[in-house]
Amino acid sequence: MKTTELPRWASAFVLPVLNLLSALLVAALVIHLLGESPTESLGILIDSAVINPEGLSYTLFYASTFIFTGLSVSIAMKAGLFNIGSEGQMYLGGLGLTVVMLTLDHSLPAWLLIPAAMIGSALFGAAWAFLPGYLQARRGSHVVVTTIMFNFIAASLMNFIIVKYLIPEGQQNPASRVFSEAGAMPRLNEWFPVLGDTPLNVSFLIAIGALVIYGMMVWRSSWGYQLRATGLNQNAAHYAGVSISRMIIVAMLISGALAGLAAVNSVMGSTHYLSLNFPAGAGFIGIAIALMGRQHPVGIFLSSVLFGALIQGGFDLSLEKPNIPQETFIFIQGLIILFCGAMENLYAPAVLKLLNIRKG
């Protein structure tokens, strides 16, 4: 009997790998057209981003942020929602973190200040996601449209707040004052000196913990079952007793909170102050990570590391190979999004046919 649907291992592992290889092959062609050797360039990228301990540390630093934005998009996807607003929610999360820091960083010890700032970032991110969730649940406004709009509103609002209220008197840099030392996330090189003088910090361990909690909540709890049921079939979930509107709002609140927490790594772990445009596209990369990782914790982790490696390795590669500009790696990211998103089932018929041939 012929198989009509791909098994889980094929759809969760084989298809993403084939899509990734396709994107990398196109990228290799582009690098060749730029006059450089794809194999040599790949070797430089891997050495810079993975093999070199300091480079790996930077890769994991970038991945820490991407894990949170990937989780933000994934939890919404599980409810059948496409939250494109993680960028704006991360931006507002940075504001919540900064409000706590500027108010309490000279009066609280680090063990109280850091959790308080994290709670502030999560609350502000969740608050920014609430209205799109409410409009989807109660008014039928599509969450894709509202979250896109809220990204632009967040950017304008943050520009106004930073320039008007947060720039210290006499300063020209559009940023808040530097936080006190108590507000700095502990760096991992304090325990592992081999990592070098890099910004990799405890946020990476918190991100791993968030992946574990996400996996347990989505696949090992009754709430997770209701969440997935809502995403698969709202009518069936409704007849099973699930409040669809409440589930949509709760999913968006959690999604926004996770996006807000992404600001912790960038602000408290690296710059130690709030600056304009600090998300730097991390919210949009989270969309690619959720699609490529198939909303699975392991997939999200591996996808985050991959994008972190592209940023770290791409920076060093562009320095060693002037013919390959830094923008090339934005193009490669776009290719990965294209193949793993819009063309995610490109190889599904061929894989299904191959499986049926093997069975026959």
From TrEMBL:
| Coiled-coil residue windows | none
Q: What are the transmembrane regions?
A: 12-35, 55-76, 88-104, 110-131, 143-167, 200-219, 239-264, 270-291, 298-315, 330-352
Q: Which PANTHER family match?
A: ABC TRANSPORTER, PERMEASE PROTEIN, GUANOSINE ABC TRANSPORTER PERMEASE PROTEIN NUPP
Subcellular localization is given as: Cell membrane
Gene3D superfamilies membership = ABC transporter involved in vitamin B12 uptake, BtuC (1.10.3470.10)
Topology with respect to the bilayer? Multi-pass membrane protein
Alphabetically ordered keywords of this record: Cell membrane, Membrane, Transmembrane, Transmembrane helix
Q: What is this protein called?
A: ABC transporter permease
Q: Which InterPro entries match?
A: ABC_BtuC-like, ABC_transp_permease
Concerning CDD domains, the annotation shows: TM_PBP1_transp_TpRbsC_like
